[in-house]
Amino acid sequence: MKGFGFISRDDGQPDAFVHISAVERAGMPSLNEGDRLEFEIEVDRRGKYAAVNLQPISE
């Protein structure tokens, strides 16, 4: 709804910001709480973590 959110990381590192544009580039219409993903982390010039190159994990 907001166009952005945060992804909890399994490695205990800080949550990663994710923008709807990254979700759409991955071919997904949206993300829902509990969805599992593989992704890469980019750090911006402010030191904030962003999830990019998202891929759903099929369980």
Automatic annotation (TrEMBL):
Leader peptide range in chain numbering? none
UniProt keyword terms in alphabetical order? Activator, Cytoplasm, DNA-binding, Transcription, Transcription regulation
Q: Name one Pfam family in it.
A: CSD
Q: Which residues form the CSD domain?
A: 1-56
Subcellular location per the Swiss-Prot or TrEMBL entry: Cytoplasm
- Its main subcellular localisation, reduced to a broad class, is cytoplasm
Decide whether keyword DNA-binding is in the record.
yes
Q: Does the keyword Transcription regulation apply?
A: yes
Matching entries from CDD domains are given as:
CSP_CDS
The name under which this protein is listed is Cold-shock protein
| Organism, scientific name | Sphingomonas alba
